[in-house]
Design brief:
The structure holds two protein chains of two kinds. By secondary structure, chain A is α/β, with parallel strands linked by helices. Chain A has helices at 13-27, 65-72, 87-109, 123-140, 152-166, 178-181, 189-201, 210-220, 265-278, 293-303, 317-325, 342-348, 376-388, 390-405, 409-423; strands at 33-36, 49-52, 148-151, 170-174, 204-207, 227-229, 251-256, 282-287, 309-313, 329-332, 353-356, 369-371. Chain B is an alpha/beta fold. Chain B has a domain at 3-292: 7-stranded beta/alpha barrel. In chain B, the strands form three sheets. In chain B, strands 1, 2, 3, 8 and 11 form a five-stranded parallel sheet that branches. A five-stranded mixed sheet of chain B has the order 4-5-7-6-12. The chains are: A alpha/beta, B alpha/beta.
């Protein structure tokens, strides 16, 4: 299994999902070898064996470098576009580039490479290197593995390379797509290409929701027979709900997540302004940070509600739990959300949740209020209702709690196992 | 008649706010970064206030009354001196005792109250006046508003409070072809004399003095006097207004700023064309050459010389509105701590930190700003203000409950409430006559300090 991160050092939900899934697979009797770019050594390895790609040199490739490169050279990313060259020059340059590539490979790739495992500026380069190292690891362990499982586009190249070198079937897992990260017109085409390559090369594609499955089919042109939905679950073991003494008497409505277009923060602000016109005993909190944060702050100031609408900035660890404990209503107005784990965490803390219909989690939850992300009237209505009608809030909290507790990774992993079995001949 | 040079220095330090998070609202009502405030004040005292005060005292004694300077010292910084560096107050008192130093009146909290609320403005001016009398034994006669903010309406308000002289910026968009080197009078208060800052000459010292890429570096006393003469060839008075922190803090001691200031009076007085005056003396000596129309507020800040450094974007406007919307509620509350916080939250600096004009005057803004971005400044301020609003509401519900029980007190309260309402009606009376009319609890509070 190729991943990019694993708890405790995580930046997004991907690591958490991988952790839950590997534990679930272990429960279902599947052994997992988890490869990640940069392991720290403090990961929980009770259910999984972790291989740190930073520790693996590629010098074990005894076959000729040319042959290896022939199989995996597509992973080299980097535009060879040079303006204003005549065809002869171009041929010469391409030839030079090819020679250099082989040389570079010998020099740079023939040793250990220290991955950052972060999402930095040279992400594309890391992705390519990860594919090289990943392929090597797959070759080393070729006898032990039956299926290759790659999580999200960062690891697809590694998955493809591993499949080509070992001939084992490949399953790619779509946690998010380019279309969830930005609006339709502005997707990163390099990422889109990688995603499409990965899905096409895969024997099966697992999507985290029907919503994502549809995107995979419609926007990436993947055959519906190949795409399976396995909803995420959530693992609450070892987590205690904390009780926090409240400083404010008012009700608190919380948005928690990256403040980006995808998460629909501005719809939340508009809905908040509508609610504040009707009742005054409420405060709104936008927790998190992101590229739209400053725009949102200006938006709030322009609406003149900044004494009731608070920003906390990025929250870590215990502060996230504290924020949930302080909340009366949780809202996730995402424009596009492949799954969305945060409302589950809120409901687990007995906080009634409002989620957008454009989120994958809406497919599995019954006791959350669902609205269209653009329907700020419905959103305001739902907030008002949960704040002012205790019967509604009590029911949502009580039933929601039971509902999320029933979402077990063991069940989700069982479905993943079935997918594995379908590709192993 | 000799021409005049008027040297005026602004002394102010804000009460910087601590990192105040959403989780603190309703739990912790201490808003200030005491460590930063103490550290900065002690540093500036060592580098600027103490050495420069000693230098000025020496100059005044040497020239036996020929050398004069003027200060405005905000109440906020006086509170900090009292707490962290009382020796600075002592050195200012020595300067006051020479009789060659004028202390100006201003708003106690270095606030923008003149734009928001006439009542609050007057209250702060009176509070400041009492503070200056208490510490320095002099009664301020001339007025300068926060950051030299001025408009026709503010001028009228100041005149109504009994001031005959006011300082402001010689803003080019207001002056047009006119020279700042004369005395003008207010459009709505014809008897109010206006002293205008000569920006170019003031900034030569305040901003350019140590800049080695400046073609005129290094600046010498003779060179500077020649510029003053050229600027005021046919004019009467040159007003050099600047931050006091210019000396030793903005322009470091090693730039030679102290030597320059030690030498300047010598050059000027030996030459004989100019003499040093304070604003009140200037107003007596020179008469107004005409009326200055300033319908919209001007200030000495930024390229625009207007109030957009504090009230120029939606963040600042919303915070400002939210703050001053509390005035009516607060007038019903008699709580010293609340009033003090209300004052400190009004300090113009908090709004300056939220400024998004980062291009033409970015360097200056950055220098004075403890926050990385205006957005952080806004979030922090609004969190503090939210807690403050909670406290005000609590205080009102408590006082309501108290008054609901015994009947006698209810009467007393309606009387004070009336007094509050009556205060604005007494506008036309002079400041002194108005003093007893002002709500009693406020004056009691200021005297305690």
């Amino acid at each position: 299994m190729f991943g990019w991160e694993f708890p405790p050092h995580i930046a997004g939900g991907l690591g958490t999902a991988c952790y839950g899934m590997t534990k679930g697979l272990a429960y279902n009797g599947v052994e997992v070898l988890f490869v990640m770019p940069s392991a720290s050594g403090d990961e929980d390895q009770s259910a999984v064996k972790i291989i740190n790609a930073s520790d693996v040199p590629i010098d074990t490739v005894s076959t000729s470098v040319d042959e290896f490169l022939g199989k995996v050279q597509f992973v080299h990313i980097g535009s060879n576009m040079v303006p204003y060259v005549d065809p002869e020059d171009f041929t010469r340059m391409v030839e030079e580039e090819r020679v250099k590539q082989i040389k570079n490979f010998r020099v740079q790739y023939g040793q250990k490479y220290k991955f950052s495992g972060k999402y930095g500026a040279n992400l594309m380069e890391e992705v390519a290197r990860y594919a090289m190292v990943g392929a090597t690891i797959a070759l080393q362990h070729a006898d032990e593995i039956d299926v290759i499982h790659a999580h999200d586009w960062l690891t697809y190249l590694a998955g493809i390379a591993a499949k080509r070198l070992t001939g084992k079937p490949l399953v790619v897992h779509v946690h998010a797509t380019s279309f969830d990260r930005s609006s339709d017109d502005h997707i990163d085409t390099r990422v889109y290409d990688l995603e499409k390559k990965g899905m096409e090369a895969a024997d099966r594609v697992i999507a985290v929701s029907d919503l994502t499955r549809n995107i995979v089919i419609n926007k990436y042109g993947i055959s519906p027979d190949k795409v399976v939905t396995v909803h995420n679950a959530v693992d609450f073991s070892g987590r205690e709900n904390m009780t926090v003494e409240r400083g404010v008497k008012d009700k608190v409505v919380t948005f928690l997540g990256r403040i980006t277009f995808q998460k629909g923060p501005e719809y939340f602000i508009e809905a908040a302004a509508k609610v504040l016109k009707r009742c005054s005993h409420v405060r709104f909190v936008m927790a998190g940070s992101g590229d739209m944060m400053n725009r949102c702050i200006r938006h709030v100031a322009r609406l003149g509600i900044s004494d009731r609408f608070h920003f906390t900035g990025f929250l870590r660890g215990a502060d996230v739990q504290k924020m949930f404990a302080l909340s009366d209503v949780y809202i996730m107005p995402s424009v596009s959300e492949p799954f969305g784990i945060s409302p589950l965490e809120a409901m687990r803390t007995n906080v009634p949740s409002i989620i957008s219909k454009q989120s994958g989690v809406a497919e599995v939850l019954k006791y959350a209020i669902k609205v269209d992300f653009w329907d700020i009237d419905a959103m305001a209505d739902a907030i008002y209702g949960l704040l002012n009608y205790p019967a509604l809030a009590d029911m949502a909290a009580r039933c929601g709690y039971d509902e999320v507790n029933a979402l077990k990774w063991n069940n989700a992993a069982y479905k993943v196992k079935k997918v594995y079995e379908s590709v192993i001949k | 008649m000799k021409k005049s040079i008027c040297l005026y220095f602004q002394v102010h330090q804000p009460c910087r706010l601590r990192l105040y998070r959403f989780f603190d609202i309703g739990k912790d009502s201490h808003y200030y970064d005491d460590f930063a405030n103490r550290t900065i004040l002690r540093r500036v005292a060592q580098r600027c206030y103490l050495p420069m005060n000693a230098l000025l005292l020496e100059m005044i004694r040497r020239y036996k009354g020929e050398f004069k300077v003027t200060f405005s010292i905000s109440g906020s910084v006086i509170e900090q001196f009292d707490r962290y560096a009382p020796e600075v107050l002592e050195s200012f008192r020595k300067l006051a005792d020479t009789g060659c130093v004028e202390f100006l009146s201003e708003t106690y909290y270095h606030s923008l109250a003149s734009i928001a609320s006439p009542d609050e403005f007057k209250h702060q001016v009176l509070k400041h006046k009492e503070t200056i009398e208490h510490y320095f034994g002099v009664t301020p006669k001339a007025f300068r508003n926060t950051e030299l903010i001025y408009s026709d309406a503010i001028g009228a308000m100041v005149y109504d409070m009994g001031f005959k002289t006011m300082l402001t910026e010689g803003a080019k968009h207001v002056l047009g072809w006119k020279s700042p080197n004369y005395i003008y009078s207010g459009a709505m208060a014809p008897k109010l004399k206006l002293l205008l800052k000569n920006s170019s000459l003031s900034d030569d010292i305040a901003f350019r003095f140590s800049d080695k890429s400046w073609p005129d570096w290094p600046l010498t006393g003779e060179k500077y006097l020649a510029w003053i003469k050229a600027s005021a060839q046919n004019d009467e008075i040159v007003n050099l207004f600047m931050d006091y922190e210019t000396f030793g803090e903005h322009q470091k001691a090693q730039s030679g700023i102290f030597d320059f200031m030690r030498y300047l009076p010598d050059v000027v007085l030996n030459d004989g064309e100019f003499e040093f005056v304070t604003p009140s003396q200037a107003a007596k000596k020179h008469s107004s050459v005409g009326v200055l129309d300033v319908p919209d507020a001007i200030s000495w800040a930024d390229e625009e010389r207007d109030v957009t450094a504090w009230l120029g974007n939606e963040l600042q406007n919303d915070a400002f509105r939210k703050l001053y919307s509390l005035e009516e509620k607060l007038s019903l509350v008699n709580d010293e701590a609340l009033w003090s916080d209300y004052g400190h939250l009004q300090e113009s600096d908090h709004f300056y930190y939220m400024c998004t004009k980062f291009f033409s005057d970015g360097a200056v803004h950055k220098y004075f700003n403890p926050y990385d971005t205006p957005y952080e400044a806004f979030i922090n301020y609004m969190n503090v203000l939210s807690d403050f609003i909670l406290r005000v509401d609590d205080a009102i519900s408590v006082s309501d409950a108290n008054f609901a029980a015994p009947k006698k007190e209810t009467k007393a309260r309606t009387r004070t409430a009336k007094a509050v309402k009556a205060a604005p009606a007494a506008k036309t009376k002079s400041a002194k006559a108005e003093k007893p009319a002002a709500p009693k609890k406020r004056t009691v509070k200021t005297k305690k300090q």
